[in-house]
Protein 1
Amino acid sequence: MAGTKEALMRGVWCAHKPIGYDKIVINGETKLVVNNEGKLLRKAFYWKVNENLNSEQCVARLANMGLKVSHQKMSTIFRNPFYCGMISHNLLEGKLVEGKHEKLISKEIFLKVNEIQNKNSFGYKQTPEQINIPLKVFVKCAKCGTGLTGYVVKRKNLWYYKCRSKGCCVNKSSEALNGLFENVLTDFTLDMQNADLMVELLKTEFDDRSRDNAETVMLLKEQYQEINRKLERLEERFMSEEITKELYLKYAEKHKEEQVKIQRDLQQFELGTSNSEDCARLIVGYAQDLRKTWLSGDYVDRQKLQNYLFPKGIPYCKDSGLVRTEDFNSVFLWITRKQGDLGQKNAASQV
Ligand SMILES: [Zn+2]
């Protein structure tokens, strides 16, 4: 039993395998991977989130596709965090552990299906700062370009964003600025009558892109490695007292900035290369209500979505509010355009 507990703590599931998974052995290591039944079950999670189907309707659709699941079993599946990569077990005494098995769905989808608004059930605790000023650093002062910081007036428990640069005088209540950002998200939100078609189109687009971008991705990865080597050399020179701490810090920071930029580019290029269909599904799901997705996430999720949509942040100007930039995520831009095309086609077919 001690061995079992130890394995569970490491994220290795050693009890009976849940429906939707196969056990395979790779290099002497046993792995749990999603099988064909699992792929169908994955659809059920998305039906719930994207189409608002209840469990009964999901059971019926799955049956049509050749997978028989009882009503009760379906509910158990929807509630089992194993499918989003988490392990819970009596031996873990209420603790959830990040599993080593393949995820069927993301945590976001799991939480949405279970209509859980915050992730305290997963053991994360958010600080008041994270809850109140999620746009910190991400929103830039339009005047000087610096990321806004935040502070709280404790007496009133009111939070504010501000620019630290002298002379900018940018100061905005967190509630107001968060609201402005929600409006931006609402503007970009897509009214999609044909989500399935959009998933198909996006999947094809991803496949095309990953073919076109393979070379660029390789190049970027090489550049990243090259900077790693530079950083190592720099560290060695600092350790052997060839260079001063000041110089070391100066160059290390410069290299790290470059790496961040490369990573940002890679994110855009690599998106959808590993599993284009899942990726397309997730993004189309998000695109249907960006604001809701953002609001339902915790601090980490919000940051991820913000940075994903606006890779360079979004400027705030005292007079004109949040400034819409051209620097909007290329995939979402693509969806917006495609949707425009589809709308025209629909209109044409009605004539
Ligand atoms: Zn400023």
Protein 2
Amino acid sequence: MAVLYRKYRPQSFAEVIGQEHVAQTLTNSITGKNISHAYLFCGPRGSGKTTIARLFAKAINCEKPDGAEPCNKCSSCMEIMQGRSMDLIEIDAASHTGVDDVRQLIEGIKFAPVKSKYKIFIIDECHQLSKSAANALLKTLEEPPTHAIFLLATTEAHKMIATIISRCQRFDFKKLQISEIIKKLEFIAKKENVKFDDSALSLIALNARGSFRDAESLMDQCINFSGSGATVKTDDIKELLGIVEVGQISKFVDLLISKYAKNSILFLNEMAEGGVDLPEFAKTLVFYLRECLLLKINPEFLNAKGSGLSGEEIEKIKSQTAGLTDKQIQNMLELFIDAENKMKYSSIIQLPLELAVIDATNAE
Ligand SMILES: Nc1ncnc2c1ncn2[C@@H]1O[C@H](COP(=O)(O)OP(=O)(O)OP(=O)(O)O)[C@@H](O)[C@H]1O
Ligand SMILES: [Mg+2]
Ligand SMILES: [Zn+2]
């Protein structure tokens, strides 16, 4: 089966989701023929940096562009899509250990393009360039040949040397929104002819944490798990991801609300003994309490699509929080956010949760 993230990598600016600010400025510079020698794409993983870098490269070397869009038919476009263009050199600074190779490659930008208008370098994870390679890059950026374009991408801009950053036009990519991810997942599901339960796609999107690559690989796993032709169920995804059952969280919140400190702690022990991943439990609990708070403030904030919760679960939250004030839920939320953070450093992983339980069950 095809790997989704390769199959559905956008081939035109129109297919890019989110990142409107980036796409807009880049397409304007293409149509206005106002192209810089160096761009820096910063932002979270799987947000489209490499995708947009390749698109931009393709568009500026395209023989028959349609406005700012590459034609995806000419020999230059084809070569880029097949990864065999002589005028587009991609370097992954993270995996390239041959320090001198990289330096030589960068210095090679002096030579004119083989057949296209521009010779383009995409340097991924450029914060990891070796010192000598970074210096070679800096020297080239100080006096770039007219045919040369550098597209630098990084998830960690703060680790780059300032002199390189200052010579680039910088774009900050955003984490993709859940609703944006869902939209593209729906599109892929249709194309792949796979059915998903209503809240299944939301659950995938939610667990991708803003990275489209992660969303697509989760989707891959789900399709493989359920088999083609079947409907992918929300429960399958939960099992696959080791997601803590919302039902369990809900029971735990019942105990907290009833102020049963002893039973709440016993419950945690049972969870831990039953193999539940406690950090995952804490994360889901915080997520759940947030939904409780949102629902309390305004029921319209919560819908099955955006939260990954089923209608039943939402009804349950409603009855559960009926007797509580906003402030009480807020306090609980703050206690468990704090516990979640402290778990990262605690030698007894359960302890921060237990302390939060005691505070929560003693609260007014
Ligand atoms: N903004 C987006 N619109 C549409 N699809 C996207 C977008 N961002 C990412 N994708 C999808 O996710 C996959 C990975 O994206 P890409 O390689 O561009 O991410 P990246 O930002 O370079 O991540 P990394 O920092 O991990 O290299 C792409 O193949 C594409 O299918
Ligand atoms: Mg990348
Ligand atoms: Zn073309």
